[in-house]
Specification:
single chain, alpha+beta, N-terminal domain of MutM-like DNA repair proteins, four-stranded antiparallel β-sheet, 6 helices, elongated
Length: 289
């Protein structure tokens, strides 16, 4: 099979083309965000902050923008006044420790942390070497202020094992295997694109009932998930920040994502498209019988 692609929302490097549909950040993008924050901030004290849009401060990751916390500025002030500590990730969530307090970060569909200013910036942090911004044009992401103890519980609450570096748990039920893989309560971090590409790599039909993915099939899928995630992370190395596909200059680096009607990179069969749980799935009828 072809070499693993990079994260579906980003393409490092200067040469890009626009026009692809945006999709929610998946594990590679969120892990890239965690590593970037760690690189930019380390153990350096936050020198100051500005809350540019209070709606981004939420009571939980599921709260809507209209539910922004009225006391958001005070909670962030109490958090950023303490020295930053480790950044932990589970699935698509990041927990950033600040002494006995913490922030649970979620990117939504278009959120990112950047060193570059933007009219869509929601939070500005002052670092020793310049500002850092939380940017979110659609305001579907945000930050959740918590105590450190609360944050440790909230990080993995309701989620299955992290998809990266952990064995794929047994899959059960009659629902399609791709739908099962996207269930964060089953395995945390996989979304539409990573699940789609992993199933193609494993040679498994996306509509196959989850309960039929056992034995050798499960072994192949487990291996394919890791190859897909690790390949995505490897391709992200050297990028400065996330660039979403709806921004000027993104390319589609994936073998089959959005490539229905094109030949399969492995066998040349025309790739087909179907819809599962409201999400598009591209697959190869020959490689994924």
């Amino acid at each position: 099979m072809v070499a693993p692609g990079c994260g579906h929302l980003i393409q490092p490097g200067p040469t890009r083309q626009s026009g692809l549909r945006a999709s929610m950040p998946e594990l590679p993008e969120v892990e890239f965000c965690r590593r970037s924050l760690e690189r930019w901030c380390g153990n350096h004290q936050i020198l100051g902050f500005s809350l540019l849009d209070p709606r981004c401060v939420r009571a939980s990751t599921k709260a809507r923008p209209s539910a922004g916390l009225a006391e958001g500025a005070e909670l962030l002030s109490a958090t950023f006044s303490q020295p930053p500590g480790p950044l932990l990730r589970h699935g698509k969530r990041i927990l950033w420790r600040f002494g006995d307090r913490a922030l649970l970060l979620h990117l939504g569909m278009t959120g990112k942390w950047s060193r570059q200013p933007s009219p869509h910036a929601k939070i500005r942090l002052e670092l020793r070497d310049g500002p850092l911004f939380f940017i979110d044009p659609r305001l579907l992401g945000g930050v959740v202020p918590l105590t450190w103890q609360e944050g440790q519980t909230a990080l993995g609450a309701g989620l299955g094992p992290d998809a990266l570096g952990n064995p794929l748990p047994p899959l059960a039920g009659r629902r399609a295997v791709k739908v099962a893989l996207m269930d964060q309560a089953v395995v945390a971090g996989l979304g539409n694109v990573q699940a789609m590409e992993a199933l193609w790599r494993a040679g498994l039909r996306p509509t196959l009932p989850a309960e039929e993915v056992t034995g050798e099939r499960h072994t192949r899928l487990d291996r394919a998930v890791q190859v897909q995630l690790l390949g995505s992370l490897q391709m992200l190395e050297g990028a400065e920040e996330i660039t979403y596909v709806e921004e000027a200059g993104s390319t589609n680096p994936f073998p089959i994502y959005q490539r229905d009607g094109e030949p399969c990179p492995t066998c040349g069969t025309i790739l087909e498209r179907l819809v599962q749980s409201g999400r598009s799935t591209v697959w190869c009828p020959r490689c994924q019988p």
